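Notes from hallway chat w/ T.B., transcribed later so I don't forget. T.B. wanted the structure written out for a chain they're using in a teaching module, and asked if we could keep both sequence and structure tokens in one place. Agreed to drop them here.
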Amino acid sequence: MAILILALGILFLLFVIWLLKVFSPKINFYTSGLDQKFNLNEISILWKLAKVVELEEPEALFVSTNALTRCITNLIETSRREGTENAPQTQDFLAKLYKFRTKIELASENKRGLESSKALSNGQKLRLILKGSGIFASKILNNSRDLVITVPIQDGRIKIPPEEWKDKDVSVYLWRKGDAGYVFDTKVLTSGVFWGQNVLYLAHSDNLFRAQKRKSIRSECHINAQLYIIKETVTDYSQVETAPGFKCILEDISSDGAMIRIGGKGVNNIQIKLQFELENTLILMYGLVRSVEYNAANKQSRLHMECIHIEPSMRNAILSFVYKILPEDQKNAEVALSQLENEVKAEDKNDPAGGASSEENNAQAPADEKVYEVEIPTAIDPDFLASEKPDDPLANN
């Protein structure tokens, strides 16, 4: 009898071990999903998606952007086939997945942030703050034993001679492309000449701190759009404009804003509306111009817009564009078109006479970064608002 009980106990233990072995991945998956604030129904969908795309470790979906991207892509394709893509439940779930994907990506970037100024690249733009004197613009010319930078300028000119910077304590701000803003404190060692140019030599710092963490992921782009200035106190967010607005180009975009290139002198702190198409989806984005960069040489401006309203489905369309989450056939089409575009650009570069006229190239080419200066207008520029029927704002006068 004792032997029978022992045998049954061993069989039960083996059965429990088998159950744990079989169901442990799913239990761990559900536990991880609940920890990330997904509900049981959403976790069930994610589990099925992980199986459909054949993730070797389904739990990787909660830590890997690549794994999550594959699942989101499959979800989009499936909802399109079933005709549920625009259903509120689908859009809400996609918004939640995009938000979670942004969280994973930003967390990953935070782990690989800069720690030392020795890692900065030549050409990196800088802003120096000298206590009592304001903000100065500069850039790195050489990064070696010391940080060699151009003589800082303010309002487009040198206000403090190079020799007067020696031994000054400064705070240095920079924006690392694709990462975040950083700041570090250092001392100006001396001034001198480097490659025939007056420069300052800064001491390196191993204490770089993030000055601004991104809340969204931005993507460079080249999208034609219409810009409308909002003057009404009450805005109808669903209104689609039929009259032409100011023609503009979006140079980068996120679900929280955009950088807009437009002809003429931009205006700070005004409410605007952007209307454009993205992957056959009409986008209406409402926002506030937070800052303006004006290029006097080609009479163009860059507007940094913060989004204050966008419909959830339109936000998801932007996120889909930003994260390049497209069905395979659309991806192939995008790659093919991109390759053709690059080939045409290369041919135009090698044979300028065969391309567009110089005037057309000047009108369409991105503005020269070197001549941009940050400018914050204090009043609405009448020339920017006067025209009732806007001309092409990207054409040079």
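Follow-up for T.B.: The longest helix spans residues 2-35. Might be a good example for the class.
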